[in-house]
Structure formats: C-alpha cells, structure tokens
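#data-curation
PF: Archiving a pair of folding outputs for the training set. Convention for this channel: one message per protein, sequence first, structure tokens after, nothing in between. First:
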Amino acid sequence: MKALNDRDWGNEIESVIMGPDASLLIYTETNWKGRRMAFVSNHRVLDLDKFQMANDIESLQVECKWERKTESVDAGEYP
C-alpha cells in the first residue's frame, strides 16, 4: 500500500465506508495474502480495530459495478 502517492496507507486506514456499487477485500499482507475481510456495497465499519484490522492493511481489491443508464425523453416535453 506504499505506491499511492509514496505514502504508507497501510498504517492509515482505520475505517471503511462502501458506496452503493462497490465491494472491497482488505488483506493484512502484501499481494493479497494473509487475513482478509470483505465489505459489500452500502456497508460501513467505523472502527476496524474491533476486527483487529486497523492500521494493518497491506493490500486490497476494489470492485465497482458500472451500469450505463439511458433515459428516453419525449421531444414534445421541451420547447
């Protein structure tokens, strides 16, 4: 977790808040190894220390769902 802005983010993450279209796996070791914890969409943990994961995250995987949404509008609704 040291590659992002040359900062060691593994010692900074203490909480996780997931949006409506994302999921997350966090790991205690680099290269997606060690103990892991999963978060589903709309999930939040404000204190990772309760799970002995605060300041102990060394790698993570994020998955985001993206869906293209289109709307049809009746041209008669606009001048």
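PF: Second:
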Amino acid sequence: MNQCYFSKNNIKHIDYKNIELLKKFIDSHARIVSHKKSGVCTKHQRELSNAIKRARFLALLPYIAK
C-alpha cells in the first residue's frame, strides 16, 4: 500500500495558498481527485478538499476547467 503523500513528505498543514501543491490533486476537469486515486489518507483527504474549496472561493483555483 502506498503511503500518504503528506505523511511521506512530513507536511503537517495543507495550506490553501499553496496552489502548485493543490493542483496535483485536481484532475483535468478541475474536480478533486478521490483518495483512492491519489493515495492520500482519509484525514489528509478531508484537509485537502477543504483547502481546495477555500482556494476556489478566493478565486485561486477554478471551479470548472475551460
């Protein structure tokens, strides 16, 4: 089983301002990738989805792809 990306890289807090990190977990249609595909544990998946949603609300990330 793959280890969680955030646990492996010792990332304690997922920051909504780190756009390059968040883009790794968004597919080509600007949807959040499931934890089964991304390999992220459940705890970090919840934090990741909240960070992506917060970044979308502040217009740092798109809601839909063009």
